[in-house]
Design brief:
Elements lengths: L18 H20 L3 E11 L7 E3 L39 E10 L5 E8 L2 H4 L3 H15 L3 E6 L20 E6 L8 E5 L7 E4 L8 E4 H11 L18 H13 L4
Parallel strand pairs: 4-5
Antiparallel strand pairs: 1-2, 1-3, 3-4, 5-6, 6-7, 8-9
Helix pairs in contact: 1-4
Length: 265
């Protein structure tokens, strides 16, 4: 049986509607692809931050300080009866949240010879990074902190929606649908920028380690292909109009022609 395959040669723009799932898969698959190249000196580790979304304010990224887990609920909790001398429990107002909190992953590469010192961070950007609000502000703070600590940062932006947020100055790079920015921690204001268009295969990029060490490679196209297969995204209905945000006329026409030739419309 033929494996499911996206009709797009590179990034499938329809995946943007399923980004939470796509994001988790990309981080995991990228970490798996890097690990054999890094050992034994370096290790790739997945980290997570908690993103709280509400309808009243913009997304906010936080790290949880305490986790509360349910083990075996007490049969007496909530009962009107309390043992003598116990503290009376106040009755709370129960409020339902508008959204469940979401976890976003990113990749850290650490040096095992220095006690696990952080060398490189790889970010697959998400809407919380690219939309105005506290989530974006916290991401920009992270950019500054990594730069000050001379930690390399690889920003992979496969979302058309949202603001331009990668570190390279927008007025110094060509326009494109997607982009990758690599900042080597020891390179000051120098950035390695990859513009990517809808009709292009996603590139294999160089991931920096320490200045004296050779880069490792991360081929992005197989990661998207694996995400498409394992996520069963061949179920996408491509008969719909081009996905948001709006495309320029030439790109919309190209997508329509591509999907018709692939028998998807």
């Amino acid at each position: 049986m033929t494996e499911p395959q996206s009709p797009f040669p590179g990034m499938d723009p329809y995946l943007e509607a399923y980004w939470r799932d796509v994001h988790h898969r990309l981080c995991t698959y990228a970490c798996d692809a890097l690990q054999p190249q890094l050992r034994p000196r370096y290790l790739a580790r997945l980290e997570e931050r908690l993103v709280v979304e509400t309808e009243l304010e913009d997304s906010r990224s936080i790290y949880p300080d305490v986790k509360v887990v349910q083990r075996h609920p007490s049969p007496h909790f909530g009962s009107a009866a309390h043992s003598e001398g116990s503290v009376a429990l106040a009755e709370p107002l129960v409020v339902r949240g508008l959204h469940e909190p979401a976890y976003e992953g990113f990749i850290q590469i650490i040096d095992t010879t220095t006690g696990g010192r952080l060398v490189t961070v790889i970010e697959f950007l998400s809407p919380s990074n690219k939309l105005p609000g506290e989530g974006q502000a916290l991401y920009q703070q992270k950019q500054r902190e990594l730069s000050e600590a001379r930690v390399s940062l690889v920003e992979i932006d496969l979302l058309r929606g949202g603001d331009y947020i990668v570190q390279a100055r927008r007025d110094r790079v060509p326009p494109s649908h997607y982009r990758i920015n690599v900042h080597r921690g020891w390179k000051g204001q120098e950035h390695e920028y990859y513009p990517i268009h809808l009709d292009q295969r996603l590139p294999a990029i160089r991931i920096p380690l320490r200045e004296q060490d050779a880069d490792v490679a991360l081929d992005l196209q197989p990661l998207i292909d694996q995400t498409y297969r394992n996520g069963a995204y061949d179920q996408i209905d491509y008969r719909k109009a081009p996905p948001p945000p709006p495309l320029d006329a030439a790109s919309a026409e190209w997508i329509d022609d591509l999907l018709r030739r692939a028998g998807k419309r």
